[in-house]
Write a structure and sequence with these properties.
Length: about 400
């Protein structure tokens, strides 16, 4: 079954983003881990929409995060969103790649398979692989193409803890993604594959295909460990606009404040989390003061008004609406204005519910919807004011945005 795409596009990229990120130890899907203020998935997608030729982009995502993934893809693709699709991944990488290949139309002749974890891969690398694959299709050889770097370290063959010999590294390369192939040939290779391979080129070769390589790029390394994550963040920061540079003025800040009284008849939902047994918050929607403050901060950063004026405090469409509805709406309006969130900070003010034990969970839930890191903190007012008297809850949020 194919997705609905513009007709006649002859090349595509399948971005595999269904990994769990267990080795990173962060507790969220790897593609949704922020890299210096922007989700890994967003960074991986951005170069694709700078390519000069129209390209279909299929993202294979965790089945539990499909809607979040669609939001990220839409914010990055902008006007080119019709060229994109998001599909659920399989039980392993093999199944995930097949899921992505399966939705491509027959018009596609060259397909690249790319790991979202190689999120700093430059656009030039995609161009090199596409050019080589399209050349092989034109000449009828139908070769696969991988980007690769020479091995610079001395390589030893070992047995247990004993070094046996030095291996001639002149014939060795380190392989990266995207890896490119004629679409029909790669589909056939996956269909007949009988054993697990470490990459798509291995599947292609096992089916009898020839794989050639083009120069890779040092920035196209795979983020697997916390060290890799720190390295990627350092690279991004080193390229950021320096303080005092005229480009720094493009960063926009926003402030949001929301207050709701307690309502014992309503369920308690704060920061997109449910707190059973706690009194809820009154409001036309679900009364989630934290989500509403985040929404207002995002709108403020974009000069887009506030939650009441934008969504309507009495609009029947938002009666009982969950807080993520308003945050997604704000992120969408920012995208329309050419802006993306960089980070959000929110402070919860009140005696209850106690958020300390669930702070990390709340940050993950908010970050997934905002598409950028969200830091949460909590405080009380030492018995002063309406929050101190236990009459309600307040939240103050700040948001940083930048041009998309």
């Amino acid at each position: 079954m194919t997705a609905r795409f513009p007709e006649g596009v002859d090349r595509a990229v399948v971005v595999v983003a269904a990994g769990s990120g267990t080795r990173l130890g962060i507790g969220t899907a790897k593609a949704f881990v922020p890299i210096a203020g922007q989700l890994m998935l967003a960074r991986a997608l951005e170069p694709l929409f700078t390519l000069s030729a129209p390209t279909l982009v299929v993202v294979v995502a965790p089945s539990t995060l499909l809607e979040d993934c669609r939001q990220v893809v839409a914010s990055v693709a902008g006007a080119a969103v019709a060229y994109t699709a998001v599909v659920p991944g399989g039980t392993d990488r093999h199944g995930s790649v097949q899921a992505g290949l399966g939705v491509l139309p027959d018009s596609v002749t060259a397909v690249l398979v790319h790991d979202a974890a190689r999120c700093l891969t430059p656009a030039a690398q995609f161009d090199r692989v596409f050019d080589a694959v399209e050349g092989s299709v034109a000449t009828g050889t139908g070769d696969g193409v991988v980007p690769a770097l020479p091995v610079t370290d001395t390589v030893k063959r070992v047995s247990g803890d004993v070094v046996v010999e030095t291996v001639d590294r002149s014939a060795l390369v380190g392989v990266q993604t995207p890896q490119g192939f004629p679409l029909d040939a790669l589909r056939r290779a996956y269909a007949v594959s009988t054993q697990s391979e470490t990459d798509d080129a291995g599947v292609f070769q096992a089916a009898g295909g020839t794989v050639r390589f083009v120069p890779g790029d040092a920035d196209a390394f795979k983020i697997t460990t916390p060290w890799d994550l720190g390295r990627a963040e350092s690279i991004v920061r080193s390229r950021a606009t320096a303080p005092g540079d005229p480009g720094a003025s493009a960063v926009r800040l926003g402030l949001g404040v929301d207050v709701h009284a307690f309502d014992v008849e309503s369920p308690c939902r704060v920061g997109l989390l449910d707190f059973p047994g706690e009194p809820g918050l009154s409001g036309h929607s679900d009364g989630d003061a934290v989500a509403h403050a985040v929404c207002d901060a995002l709108l403020s950063a974009g000069g887009l008004g506030d939650i009441g004026g934008t969504f309507g405090t009495a609009d029947p469409a938002y009666a009982g609406a969950a807080g993520d509805v308003f945050i997604r709406g704000a992120v969408g309006l920012l995208a329309d204005a050419g802006l993306v969130p960089v980070s959000v900070t929110v402070q919860v003010i009140g005696n209850r519910p106690r958020i300390g034990a669930r702070r990390a969970e709340m940050q993950d839930a908010l970050s997934a919807v905002v598409g950028a890191p969200v830091a949460v903190s909590g405080t009380t007012t030492d018995g002063l004011g309406f929050t101190g008297r236990g009459q309600g809850l307040a939240a103050i949020a700040t948001a940083v945005t930048r041009p998309a």
